C-alpha cells in the first residue's frame, strides 16, 4: 500500500511549481519553533548561535488521496527532494550551521504537508553588553519567503502566541544563558513600493546567569577595595601604609590582567563592569596619593616651617569639631606647650648659670650675699679666659636646646595636622566608595529584576 500510494502521488508530480490548481490561490504556510539550546553568544562579532526545532506545514493540492483505496492509509512520509517546499529562510542568517539533514516530510490524505527539522542557527544580533554580567539580550529570527510575494505565499503561526511565548519544554536550562520567553509577530514589508512580502518574527529573549562572573570578577575586586579601606587604620607616620597601598595597587593590576579575557569585547561600547574596574583602580591611586601626602606632612624634618595660622584654625579647631574627634582638646593644649617648654628651658639655663658661679641653690645666691658675690665672681670672670669659654659653651648649649625644642614643636604640630587631615580624607574617600557602590548595586539590582 505504501509503494502504491507513493507511486500514485509522485508519478506525475511537478515539484517545480507551486502546488495549487488555481494560480490565484495563496499558499498559507504555518510555522512554529521551539528553542532547544543557546550554544554561544559572540559579543565581539555580534553573532548568536542557537539550536531550534523548526516546524512548518502547508497544503499541497496535488498530494491528496482516498484512504479507502490504499488500505486506510492517512499519512505517508515522502522524500523532501521529491515535492515542492516553500523557500522560507531566516533573514539574519550569517553562516551555515551544522544542522542534521532530515530527508522526509509527513503528508496527510488531505494534502497537509508537515516539515519538521532541527536547525543550528547562526544569526546576526545587536548585542547590548552595557549591563554585563546582568544583561538581557533580545535577538530576532525573521522567517520570510525570499522570492514569493504575499499573494503567493502567506505566513501564519502554527500555535497560539501565548503557547509559543512560555514554551520551555525542550530547552536545555543548564548553560550560561536562561531563556525568558519567545515573542512572535506577523508583519508585511515592501521594498521601494514593490509588492509586499510576508514575514514572521520570533524574538528570543535570553538572560545571562551572573553567578560565575559575580564570584570571579566582582567579589575579588570588592575584597581588594575593602582591604584598601582597612589600610587607612595603619599609623600615618609609619611607612608601612605606603608599601601596603602599593602592594594593593599592584595586586589589582595583576587581577585586571587576568580577568581581561573574561570581559566581552566590542567596538560599540564598554560594559559598565569595565568602567567599574577603572574607577576602582582610580580610587586605589587616589588612596595612595592621599597616603603619600599624609606621610609627607607627618614626617619629621629639621627645616620644616611652622604651621600657618589659618591651617591651625581650619584643621585643629573647626575640622576637629566637624569630624567629632573626641580628643580634640589635646590639640588646643598642645599649641601652648611650645611657650611653656621655652620658659622651662630659660629657667633651667638661668639655674645652670647660677650654679656655675658657685651657688648650689639659686635662692641662696639671691638672699644670702648674692649681691656681694656676683660682682666678685664677675670680676674674676672678666679676667679669667676659662670662665669666658664656659659661658660661651653654656650659651651654645642653651641655643641648641631651644632650637631642638622648637623643631619638636613644629614636627608635633605637623603631626597633628596630618592626623586630622588623614581622618578628613579617609571619611571623604569612604563616602565616595559607599556612594559608588550603592549606585552600582542599585543599577545592577534593577537590571536583574527587570
Layout of SSEs?
Layout: H1 2-10, E1 27-42, E2 47-59, E3 75-79, E4 88-90, E5 93-96, E6 104-108, E7 112-124, E8 136-145, E9 153-157, H2 161-165, E10 177-190, E11 196-208, H3 211-230, H4 240-259, H5 272-298, H6 309-322, H7 329-334, H8 337-356, H9 362-367, H10 370-383, H11 385-449
Parallel strand pairs: 1-9
Antiparallel strand pairs: 1-2, 2-7, 3-6, 4-8, 5-7, 6-7, 8-11, 10-11
Offer a concise description of the structure.
By secondary structure, the chain is an alpha+beta fold. The protein is built from eleven helices and eleven strands.
Helices and strands: which structural class? alpha+beta
**Quaternary organisation of the protein chains:** single chain
Largest sheet: 7 strands, mixed
Helix content: 40-55%
Number-wise, the strands total 11
